[in-house]
Amino acid sequence: MTENRLAKFPERFFLFYEIMLIFIAICTLLGNALVLIVTWRERSLHQPNKYFIVFLAVADLIVGVLVIPFKLYQLNLDPEQKNSISIHLCRFLVWIDTFALTTSIYTLTFISVDRYLKISKPLQYKSRMTTSRSVKIIFLIVFISSSIATYAATPFAGSSGILDGGVGPCSVNDLNEIKGFYTLLSIIAFMLPTICIIIMYVLIFLVVHKRQKMFLNGELGQINNPSRQAVFRQDLKVIKMLLVVVGVFICCWCPRIITIVLSIYHPTLLYVSNNSSLSTIHGIYILFYTMRALPLLNSMCNPIIYACLDQTYRKAFIRVFHQIIRRPDVRRQQSPIA
Predict the structure, then answer these.
(1) In the chain, what percentage of residues exceed pLDDT 90?
(2) Per-residue model confidence (pLDDT) at position 6
(3) In the chain, how many H helices and how many E strands?
């Protein structure tokens, strides 16, 4: 009876896991494609700082179009098929996995720096953050992500990708190689960007808090001044959005990095023995695959956080939806009379 339940659980769980990945892929595709379409249609969004949002959408679109479908493809392979997979396809899976997710992380990092410069030095921001400079920063992100991904795809790196995209001929058994790469990856691709993001948003919080204090003390003008009240409300929205940004990023990425570190330094904590209880085995299954899915969930949430919470994008979305709704009515009015 126990063996039957143990055999049925992976089938049911993997079915649920595949459905969840398909849902994340569809939402990621629709959300990031909408950001690209709206940015292309609306001239008000053709600004240097919005290019980072666009590039983030492109990186997350790669996750929805390539990374998640390849994960679904791997889940449906049996052990023999995984071992017979092409070495070139295997290396590409590792490369695209590492490239897309690293690009997303580093773009989020540069967005935090950009927002700090915009809020702390608004008068100097326009002259400093030009189109050419933003394009150079995007090329820098591509270079860093490509370098990390290319190294990850090499045979001597000891990498299976951030989401373990390397299977079969790309599998690595040397624990020393695995430790070296994933320790480096955890520091370069997560810890340093996370520290930078947190520092930038703490600095933004301090700037906004200082500005609000000066406003309440009347140092920025009359409290009843409508323009000052609008700035005060906008600063409060900034603080709320910062909490969402940092919270979602850490919740999506921190568990995955923790499981990576534990699996290479304390593998016994995640090891399932033959004597383990059924509930323990099920719990390890759920925990392990949930940690893999969370970074993908971050790519789905990014359009909501960085576009829908942005007032300029929100207004642009509304205008585009109104245009789509009005088009059928216009066509009916212009239809030829028999």
Answers:
(1) 12
(2) 53
(3) 12, 0
* Distance, CA of 338 to CA of 328 (rounded, Å): 19
How many Å from the N-terminal Cα to the C-terminal Cα in the chain? 73
Provide mean pLDDT across the span 252-259: 86
Tens digit of pLDDT for each residue in 38-71?
888 888 788 888 888 899 899 999 999 998 998 8
CA atoms within 13 Å, Cβ hemisphere of 251 = 10
Locate 120 and state its tokens. Answer: 């702390």
Cα angle 249, 250, 252 (rounded to 5 degrees) comes to 65
User: Of the ranges 59-63, 112-116, 222-226, 305-309, which is most confident?
Assistant: 59-63
Angle of the 87-120 helix axis to the 226-265 helix axis, nearest 10: 150
Question: How many residues does the structure list for the chain?
Answer: 338
Contacts of 172 by beta carbon, 8 Å cutoff, 6+ apart: 158, 159, 160, 166, 178
Which pair of tokens denotes residue 241? 């959005």
Collapsed DSSP state (helix, strand, coil) of residue 49? coil
Which H or E run contains 287?
helix 278-303
CA 88, 28, 295, 78 torsion-angle sign: negative
> 65, 36 in Cβ contact below 8 A?
no
What does the block give as tokens for 293?
Answer: 């899915």
Two tokens, residue 260: 């990576």
Whole-number Å distance between alpha carbons of 107 and 114: 10
Question: Tokens at residue 259, please?
Answer: 């499981």
Question: Mean pLDDT throughout 210-214?
Answer: 76
Which of 64, 54, 59 is CA-nearest to residue 114? Answer: 54
pLDDT at 252: 87
9-13: average pLDDT: 73
- Do the beta carbons of residue 254 and residue 286 sit within 8 Å? no
pTM of the model: 0.82
